[in-house]
# Entry
Amino acid sequence: MKTTIHNLLSEIRPEFDFSQSSNFVAEGLLDSFDIVQLVTALDEAYNISIDGVDILPENFSNVESIKATLIKNGATT
Amino acid sequence: MNLKFKNKRISGILTVLPENEVMFDDEIDNYNFSKAQSMKLKLVMGYDKRRVVKEGTTSSDLCIYGMNYLFDNSLLKKEDIDALLLVTQSPDYFIPPTSHIIHGKLGLKQDMVSMDINQGCSGYIVGLNQAFMLLDQDSIKKVVLLNADVLSLKVSKRDRNSCPIIGDGAAITIVENDTSEKAIYSSVKVEGKGAEALIIPAGGFRTPSTKETAVLQEDQSGNLRALDHLKMKGDDVFNFVQREVPTMIQEVLQKSGYNKDDIDCYMFHQPNRFMLKKLADKIGVPHQKMPNNIVENFGNASGVSIPTAISFNLGDKLLKDSFLVCMAGFGTGLNWASLVMRLEHLKFCEIINYK
# Structure
């Protein structure tokens, strides 16, 4: 799951090294439009629909929080 | 607040769109973002074409054009209009009410109601509710509800938050008494503490427009806008919609006695494709039952977006067939409102171009 997340992040913002960041949003690697793209890509990759109420910056601030959001929304692999 | 009406119907819907069309692809260079990023967003959000007025065209111009079309085609008689309601956030002037300008230019009778209502994205539902209430008066048999906005003139061309979605337009809805006992159910909610989530900060009496309020300033995300421009806190609006709208829909359906699968169409306000897909998923209805194709074809003209969605997606099917429709508007205010009613056997339901 972590590898998929990293791959998708790199597709959306290839100019950044996400492994060097502890907070993607606070450090300016992801803005709200990037999160929209990421949610769309994650929905497709895991065949889920992340609940709109979970689309908050804190749920996409690092790989762990993204993973937790995916699991909460039914992603299994 | 839950509302219930009986013996009312919509008998016609006409959407009037400016002929002038602008393309997202032609505007990409206006924004402080890479072309690749913007093109990805185009797909997700549904940015593509927008209809916008040319400078000098106002809300009343669009309404008058549409009203004359109805008169000329014998779809409406002047003398039958007992009330004229205009829902707009872009009036021709602060004073007088724009509905009165329309009234005067059309030469309507004196013995009638005419008023403006300042509402945005939920303005179609608010306007319909007001029309239904007026129809409870014995002297009012027919209400013309006008929704019109030309807010593209108040959006910075360098603001990717707002510019790619905002369109202009007007809609004319004829609301009248009916012998049918079929009830109409509505729910209306407001949270004024969120009023600044969608705001034009300058130009009113609080902060009049000056040279300073016209100066473009860059925000944290790289968008450039002035205080004279529409400012939308997109994240706040998105979160409010996802939090509040599904609950409201559950409530209005429960009050109506219908379940979500009984509804033929969910005609919602059209902010962007992504938001509507998320709402459909949360409410648990197939995407095809909740059209999200208005932003990509015409742009989001605030309170005009629901009648545009109805005209574009159902159109003349409504002249013969019957559809149980759930409508919802949400945004400026913050305000959110919904309505469940049957639309059937309309006299007209179409889109025309303002020339």
